[in-house]
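Continuing the batch. This is chain 6 of the set; chains 1 through 5 are on the previous pages. Same settings as before, nothing changed between runs. Recording input and output for traceability.
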Amino acid sequence: MQLQRQLGIRRYETAWFVLHKLRRAMIAPERGLLTGEVEVDEAFVGGRNPARRGGRDRTGKVLVAVAVEVRGTGSGRVRLHALPSADRPSLLGFAQATIAPAAIVHTNGWSGYGYLAGAGYDHRLAGQHYRLADRTLILPRAHRAIPGLKTWIAGTHHGTSAKHLQVYLDEFTFRHNRRHTPMAAFQTLLGLGTLHGPSTYRHITT
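Output for chain 6:
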């Protein structure tokens, strides 16, 4: 609605379409994999659903995996992806698509991460490196990224459907990774737009 007002676009649907075309241009085709030390975790994203039983029950929600580079006490680049489940093939596929081989990968003790060591990563359980008595120290960068994502979706977009969630994850990733150079982000987006093929209304809505 803000874009609609600023550009003087008559129809809300047109502004929505423009933004979705931009979101699909926010992924660099040749972007590099995360390197060094990386924290990996997963969380459910979506509105409240009274039918959800807690734990890993995903009723009414979408599972999102997050990987964040460790940069001293801060966070480096982030990657986010919606997953069908938290099983080993899904989590390993996410790691291989986002993290460079031989990187140090910190995770919790969930069995879904069991293939990481065999796939060539230096897999370290968070409980072996952080004080279990203070859970805020377990995967702190991943645990900052997920609440930040949820707050951004709820506060800026007031929610999103599971169908379009991935492009919102891509937008959050784009913004997070360029948070220190906001003025250059727009120029980067224009450049990325020339590297992608056209996104039609049918492609976006079906």
